[in-house]
Amino acid sequence: MSLQLPLDLETPDRFSRDNFIANTALTTTLAVLMHPDQWLSPHLILMGPKGSGKTHLGHIFADHTGGRFLTATQTHSLDELANTAYVVDDAEDASEEALFHLCNHVQKIGQQLVLLTENQPIAWNVKLPDLSSRLNAMRILSLPEPDEDLLIAILNKLFAQRAISPSPDFIDYIARRMDRSVGAAQKIVTELEHYANGRAFNRALAKSFFDQNGDFFEPETGMPF
């Protein structure tokens, strides 16, 4: 099975195409992003839960098109618009005026705008009627919540970067006791590396670690998958 996983790795090129390992849903979305000339509209919304790969895909698109990647905060002080494609992360928190101008700008110059979000535009509570109608007309590509196979591949990648070769039952054990997100994977790999202190990365080590620290779930998750 081919996996293409969004790996937010702690390296300067963590959002590069080379760090994107693949699964079917992400591969399909990546293929759409790599061919903006085939889009029916210059505007696109990429929607998915935290850890699903939105930000990584957005960076890949910006790099591929030579576009600009903006955080929501940056849109509140956006003075000049370049003649290029744009990606806006956490778009629901962006300046409404800036988003509206970006919609018009990319359409005028023949470029594209990709908005990254966890929620449908209808949930953004948009005040500008013109922007609201634009958003509701945009194509939405939905990313699923990361599954167990994806999480396991992320964990294997992170351990491999540290030259650690854990046993398969070690990886399976920790994957069932943590949130399905890159951030959680980074945190647990770092803590396990310190905790091991030269011991083998096997199921016994993992069990000992979780017995001492508990499961790695966010408070709102609170249960294994």
Give a verbal description of the structure.
The chain contains nine helices and five strands. It is α/β, with parallel strands linked by helices and 225 residues long. The chain has two domains: 17-142, Rossmann fold (3-Layer(aba) Sandwich), CATH 3.40.50.300; 148-213. The radius of gyration is 20 Å and the shape is elongated. It starts with 23 loop residues before the first helix and ends in a 12-residue tail after the last helix. 33% of the residues are buried.
Q: Please bin the fraction of helical residues.
A: 40-55%
Mean pLDDT: 86
Termini Cα gap: 21 Å
SSE ordering:
HEHEHEHEHEHHHH
SSE class: alpha/beta
Unreliable residue runs: 1-12, 219-225
By oligomeric state, this entry counts as single chain
CATH class annotation of the largest domain? Alpha Beta
How does CATH name the architecture of the largest domain?
3-Layer(aba) Sandwich
Radius of gyration (CA) equals 20 Å
CATH superfamily of the largest domain: P-loop containing nucleotide triphosphate hydrolases
Query: How does the major sheet shape up?
Result: 5 strands, parallel
According to CATH, the fold-level topology of the largest domain is Rossmann fold
Strand order of the largest sheet: 2-3-4-1-5
Give the count of structural domains. Answer: 2
Shape, principal axes of CA atoms:
elongated
| Strand coverage percent | 5-15%
Number of helices: 9
Number of strands: 5
